[in-house]
Design goal:
The structure is a single chain. The N terminus is likely disordered. The strands form four sheets. Strands 1-9-2-6-5 form a five-stranded mixed β-sheet, with no helix packed on it. It has 221 residues and is mainly beta.
């Protein structure tokens, strides 16, 4: 989630350095600060950003007026790319960017009820015809019943994630369930452009990991 807000923001910076943009980075699981150091890549080049401990904001300085493509990367999180606009002036009021980075499957979740799995599809390589290979960037949605006392009767919870597309976690996903009802099944959907939608069900185990069988996605014909 990226939000461009219009609220007043003041940072003490050296007089000779122009403040170009302010970014508030949040952990998509906890809602708090990131648990790893972010890397800022601006138009393809890594750029140094400054963190202000009191506010939790990161700032970019000394940029010329214009639009920039910013890619944010951090261990345990999916990367996020956005366009930031730099305007002239020595006080930044707009824009301030509030950005949430979502956890990858290797995120160090606390002990709890987890669903983990792997999404695959048939290889397009003629030499590996019929072989299943990992499929990344699949949107997985889980709908489940919770024993959370604050929920209304009959109300369900929904969470989303993506299957990873890099390295040893390619095709894998992880979902953390908040107080699931162990007597109710979890419904999952799997969506990706140019592939048939997939469905699955699972029985959650309280405070335990559940490893689901591979979810096979078939290309649209």
């Amino acid at each position: 989630m990226v939000e461009n807000v219009h609220d007043s923001f003041h940072i003490i910076t050296p007089r000779l350095v122009a403040l170009s943009a302010a970014l508030k980075l949040s952990d998509g699981f906890t809602g708090g600060a990131l648990i790893s150091q972010p890397v800022f890549v601006l138009d393809g080049e890594e750029r140094k950003a400054y963190k202000h401990s009191a506010s939790g904001f990161w700032t970019l300085t000394g940029l010329a007026k214009g639009a920039y493509r910013l890619k944010l990367q951090a261990r345990y999180y999916f990367p996020k790319t956005l366009v930031i606009a730099v305007v002239p002036g020595d006080k930044v009021e707009d824009p301030i960017y509030r950005i949430t980075l979502q956890p990858r499957p290797d995120y160090p979740y606390p002990p709890g009820s987890m669903l983990r799995g792997l999404v695959t599809t048939a290889s397009k390589d003629k030499l590996k015809e019929g072989e299943q290979v990992p499929l990344g960037r699949v949107k997985i949605t889980a709908t489940y019943w919770s024993i959370e006392p604050n929920l209304k009767k009959g109300e369900t919870l929904t969470i989303n994630t993506l299957s990873d597309n890099l390295g040893r976690y390619n095709g894998r996903y992880a979902l953390f369930l908040e107080n699931p009802n162990p007597k109710k099944e979890v419904s999952l959907t799997f969506k990706k452009a140019d592939y048939e939608e997939g469905f699955a069900e699972a029985e959650p185990l309280v405070m335990r990991n559940v490893f689901l069988r591979n979810q096979v996605m078939a290309p649209l014909t």
